[in-house]
Design goal:
Chain A: Its cofactor is [4Fe-4S] cluster; siroheme. The complex is a heterotrimer of chains A (about 575), B (about 170) and C (about 110). Chain B is an alpha/beta fold. Chain B is built from seven helices and eight strands. Chain C has one domain. In chain C, strands 1, 2, 3, 4, 5 and 6 form a six-stranded antiparallel beta sheet that branches. Classes of the chains: A alpha+beta (about 575), B alpha/beta (about 170), C alpha+beta (about 110).
Chain lengths: ~575, ~170, ~110
Amino acid sequence: MTAHDPQQAARPNTPTTTYLYDNYDTAFVRERVAEFREQVRRRLEGATTEEEFRPFRLMNGLYLQLHAYMLRVAIPYGTLTARQMRSLADIADKWDKGYGHFTTRQNLQFNWPKLVDVPDILEALAEVEMHAIQTSGNCIRNVTADHFSGVAADEYEDPRPTAEFLRQWSSLHSEFSFLPRKFKIAVSGAAQDRAAVKVHDIGLRVVAGPGGEPGYEVYVGGGLGRSPFVGKVVREFLPREDLLAYLEAILRVYNRFGRRDNKYKARIKILVHETGLDQIRAEVEAEFAAMDRTPFAHDAEEFARIAAFFAPPPYETLPAQSEALQSAKRENPAFAAFAEVNVSAHKIDGYAIVTVSLKPTGGIPGDATSAQMRVLADASEKFGFGELRVSHEQNIVLPHVKKDDLFALWRMLDAAGLATANVGLLTDIISCPGLDYCSLATARSIPIAQAISRRFKDEERQREIGRLGIKISGCINACGHHHVGAIGVLGLEKKGQESYQITLGGDPSLSASVGELLGPGVGADQVADVIEHIVDFYLSERQGEERFIDTWRRLGHARFKDVLRREGENGADI
Amino acid sequence: MALISEGKFVEDEWRHLADEEDLPRSGKIVVSQQRLEEALAGLGPEQGLGVRLPNTADPAAIAPYFSRLSLIAIAFPAFTDGRGFSLARLVRRAGFKGELRASGRLVADQALHARQCGFDTIEIPHDIAQRQNEAQWAKALGSYAETYQEGYGTRGSILERRRKAAL
Amino acid sequence: MALLKNPQILIASDLRDGEALFLGADGWARDHKSAAVARDSQEAAALEARGKGEIAANRVVDVYLADVGLEADGSPTPLHYREKMRIKGPSVRPDLGKQARAAQSGDAK
């Protein structure tokens, strides 16, 4: 008995644009479920201690949090089918509390599962070709990719075949399952980087080689957390046929020489920093040269097999402009705002990419109810070939919507509370769960996001402010990516109280930079005030179309610090 | 210590020689890396000799002795310390054909990891062996019919199966 | 025996469902008001010893002592905001967790 309704599998518009399991994948994921069922059984009867069980439950995405267990479900490269989304909604209703939380690593978290139910949940996931494999633990984590993969106008190549190729290679890797620390890989194939490749342990950019053949620019040693680092180029061009061999070489060097004496110094970024990029490159290249590469001889065929799944859906031939869209925008200002803010250019004429914001005013960033998940599934089937994406900004993307259908889609979303027109704007806040759920957190982050969201709820004011990323983490582990927020907020404990540090100038894209600290921590009720002062100063100083980050870079951090100090002296409550 | 081979608890013919013990005249012994030269000089050519390595050992430094060694035991100071898996791969790559043993607080869940990285046997403390019986080790070893990676273990990979199925 | 700076209670998580539990006189309670309160180091050590036994029996995990203050009726309330969160549930979802259960049983009365 599973949560999945078998009749839904036969629905029309089943997408052909993502990887589908073959018998081997199906068997593998089933075996994984059986293995975990046995691991839970052994734990409950005491064959394994908690210390022994913990790494294995984490490798199946299961954490123990403040109020309950938490299960992190993998959504490889953020791509979901309508059927999968519906199954997630069913699981939320049957075994959880009717909602799910979409994360910055394109995954979905259930906040209330019982350990004894998790094998059944994994079985329900396996029914729809999903799993929770390696969504946590000191292993190669779920591989992430650009959420506009395959549809972005600026794309060189869809990065998802690469991500799927890596997902299979990294699944239950017998040599690399007990690394010094977690290991995250992101792939991008476009001019603009929407996958934050420079803040991952390994970042891959699909690029053209000397003869025009596709290969990879390889970054290594990026990462956030206690010591944030921007990744460095370890190989300018890696031919595709060497991808797995080269990654295996990097992982072997890291597994052998990464620090294991201090959890906060165990990521590969520290190894690169302490050893030096040139030395690490030399060791990786030496290992690459020494290894037996015959096992990788057939990689090209396997890559081609996988890539064939990511063929474009059957688009119609349409004019570039849509009359229906133009007239609906004229007649409905709310829709016009949505179309301006949440809709992005598609590579095919007559189509658009729609980002559905999971950040309503005062809401919990990334949360969706099971009813909303079903609406999203329905919307994707009705208007978008049954395909959905999860973005690392914790939103949902409908990647192929006809411009002619945008108004009808908007009405459907609006009825479900899913039409907030704030994508990329100030209230499109990234936030980790923080101390409301997480046992590692030192302070809450969701209430901070909610306060900022309410303060800036006026959408016209947000559009006037323009693109501005606020990112909030509830502890130094930086799951909310605060280091790379144009405005970052980090929750800490100070003298028994929650206290918030604010940073400015972070950037996750190819021009990556880590934010600089504005000053001493402030109380929870002051964060929105401080941000308002910063934003007002930016608005008074910006030139032309300058984004916040550009103004900050032009003026320098000191000018922003000065503003706050003056405001403080004038008696402002900051 | 209890010894596990192919999911079964087996008799251990080898004896770990402590550094302060004299070299025995008979029996199969495992010495530390520091005593390897001494043991090579002091033992007869027919006497079984093995060496135990820390997981930080340099495989190139030990490779010249492979022809004389029947056993290499790699230490796992903690089951979460995966360096031993990479070292096992490198020792096999360097040409070692004898018994490769994982030695430490490994758990049954790692039976397959160990075998795929080239280990023949696993030796664990008795307290783990008491909790995790032979059935659990055997079951863990059979958890997966095939895995994705090529070049690990002796059985075929999923990729190999796919290729054969496509032919 | 040295009096503790603050009284303490023993908190754990249920192995099977992960819910926060509090060690009381008769075993684990889901309501912190039923927790046994240690006032001196000997009583705290006794709570910890019972907690270790419960870990060994595979009933609970993540066991630790937390400082509390005492209400007029003698019932304990955690002092740190982290444990204040654990006795209720997420502050952003008052409809979930222990606080929801408390509200429901309150309604029933």
